[in-house]
Amino acid sequence: METFTLTRKNMADLLLSLNGGTNRTPLMVLQDVWSIDLSSAEMPPILQKIMKPAKKEIGFSLKEIVSLGNQIEFTSFPQSTIQNWVKRDVKGLIGSPKLGKKYTTEQAAMLFIVEDLKATLDFDSIRKILTLVFNNIEDTTDDIVNPTDLYAAYASIFDKIHHRPLQAKISSPTGSVNQLIDQYIKEECQMMLPSFNGVKEENLNIVLNVLIVSVLTVQSSYYQAVTKEYVNAALLGHRV
């Protein structure tokens, strides 16, 4: 059976296709990801739902968000954990379901962001850093950026790091490997800033720092996943 795994950029493109942030349909996004006939593939129910044309804004139950999140590489999304998040840990960031009993794509993106930040940050730090850019969750008009755009931005940068050859020129290519990676991430984040429309000059540094933090935490998730592979290989006597 075909394994349907999405990169974070794939997921960001999918969310943007659902909330009108692009002229591409969810089917077009998924067809680009997998070179198979999706109409006849045995896909997870959540992806089948997304591919169906919707007459109104699509909403997700927590179970569906968990199912969608578990399609993302280097991600573990237990439903009991997410329930605790929305009831207690990040209730102030997620808010109540905005589409009846269902959550919006922006709220789903927020949960994906929280999951990524959990790789290195505690909930108190997550609440503080995300409040810098999202302010009052019940009033989206005061957001410096919206959750889907932030998710799409750092997902694109991680995609360059993890899925593409290193082609960008680093302005001062000196230092250790870790220093060069850090510098590369900072420069990519700085180049991403113009993609956030309407951000005031005084808020650009806030967005930049949150963006860098987000990319670094995803990179940390990758290292954790690779470490587990080597641990399993060592215990089982396999070669990675």
Find the count of extended strands (DSSP E, 2+ residues).
0
Average predicted confidence as pLDDT: 86
Reading the helices and strands in chain order gives: HHHHHHHHHHH
Number of helices: 11
Helix fraction by DSSP (H/I, runs of at least 4):
55-70%
In whole angstroms, how far apart are the ends? 23 Å
Taken as a percent bin, the fraction of beta residues is under 5%
Main β-sheet: number of strands, strand sense, barrel status? none
Shape: globular
Whole-number radius of gyration? 18 Å
Low-confidence stretches: none
Supply the helix-strand structural class.
mainly alpha
Q: Layout of SSEs?
A:
Blueprint: H1 8-18, H2 26-33, H3 45-51, H4 62-69, H5 79-89, H6 91-94, H7 105-117, H8 123-134, H9 147-163, H10 177-192, H11 204-236
Helix pairs in contact: 1-2, 1-9, 9-10, 9-11, 10-11
Key phrases:
240 residues, mainly alpha, globular
Describe the protein.
- The structure is a single chain.
- With 240 residues, this protein is mainly α.
- Helices cover 58% and strands 0% of the residues.
- It has helices at residues 8-18, 26-33, 45-51, 62-69, 79-89, 91-94, 105-117, 123-134, 147-163, 177-192, 204-236.
- The radius of gyration is 18 Å and the shape is globular.
- It starts with 7 loop residues before the first helix and ends with a helix.
- The model has no long low-confidence stretch (mean pLDDT 86).
Give a short overview:
The protein has 240 residues and is an all-alpha fold. The chain has eleven helices and no strands.
